[in-house]
Predict the structure.
Amino acid sequence: MKQTKTSKTTTTPRRPYVVIRTYSAGVHVGTLAARRGQEVDLVDARRIWHWKGANTLHEIALRGVGPGSRVSEPVGAITLTQAVEVITATPVARANLEAAQWTP
């Protein structure tokens, strides 16, 4: 019987950029580092204080926010303890949200 070699390729899973709605801490976006039930760790995280140009968080996850939105500067990491929605953002939304600034 002939033996064949199999190669195992190990890949590092890509961490998704997500939109998080929490029970009491508002809406945050960032790279998902870990999730344990309702506890979520984000890196390079921003808080969306107020948004325009999107009806719901689904639209934010698809396209981002419009002019006049209020998005905070990023923090290195944050743990959110009561996440009730975790929505994966598209590359278009990520680019928009990473470029967003707090505007009056």
